[in-house]
TrEMBL record:
Renumbered residue ranges of the record's region Disordered: 323-347
Pfam family, one: Oxidored_FMN
Domain NADH:flavin oxidoreductase/NADH oxidase N-terminal: 4-190
Species annotation: Rhodococcus opacus RKJ300 = JCM 13270
Claim: Oxidoreductase is one of the keywords in the record: yes
Name of the featured protein: Oxidoreductase
Sorted UniProt keywords: Flavoprotein, Oxidoreductase
Amino acid sequence: MTTVAYCAVAPEGRTEYGQLWMRPQALPGLRRLTDAIHAEGAAASAQLGHAGPVANEKSTGYRALAPSRSFNPLSMRMIRSASAADIARITRAHGTAARLAVEAGFDAVEIHFGHNYFASSFLSPKLNRRTDSYGGSLANRARMVLDTARAVRGAVGDKIAILAKLNMDDGVPGGFWIDEAIQVARWLEADGSLDALELTVGSSLLNPMYLFTGDAPIREFAAAMPQPVRSGVQLVGKRMLHTYPYRDLFMLEHARQIRAAVTLPLVLLGGVTDRAGMDTAMAEGFEFVAMARALLREPDLVNRIADDAYTKSLCIPATSACRRSSPVPAASSSPTAETVPSALPRA
């Protein structure tokens, strides 16, 4: 199965203006995409989410949202605190987007509960300083995540599979970490809305390299960004973009702890590049693996491994090399022309 990522559930939920926004006008293009994927014998999943504090509001034209008022070091702007009405609207929007994904021919959806996007930022004690029913205790901070999973299940029933990508550790002092992630995974399993969890780490807002590992190409990142994000990366890049040594299966240690806590099917992400890594994941009790950088380098790698178990990936643990070697554009536009409603607050 291949995952189309990332599909925003609302116009202000995009990280950048040209990003895909799941809406009726996008369905013809998405249907062509899923038809092409199915014609090759594969299944298609749509990753659904809301960027929240990660959104570049100067690009999208809409005010970014966070659990609590905070400063975005990339856009160099203050982010407003989401109201109860905002939270309810965004929760419903996930359900609407999931219904549209069914119409577009997707076989599954993956709800984005990671990387300090909107839902993930509610889980973070550092980013969520609310004093209402969405802040404080872990049960309150997890409320939006659970409500969103239920909204998606209520919207699509059993028509497609529902996965969620859950942070195990933000990699940020005072952020969401593994002990809390274990409890949230247990709650999600008990709720019954999900078919599987994909496990991840890191904060796109405060520590993105914790997710990727390897080199931190600050100059390359800055050069690829529009203003004012470029200046933000140049100013705070050394504080945000740390270098973490790469190793195969680099999320396995954290993921084992989630595996020991739940029976829900789990997807292991992070440094899966060959058949040996896949076999290790299966032996550790994971039902699936996810691959990213290795497929940017070699889109046919999975088929080659199926033909020859000893196939070695040509991928090297260099984030900058991914951008240089990828046949996929660094940023792509929505399949159809943008139509932007006027009911939401502008930046």
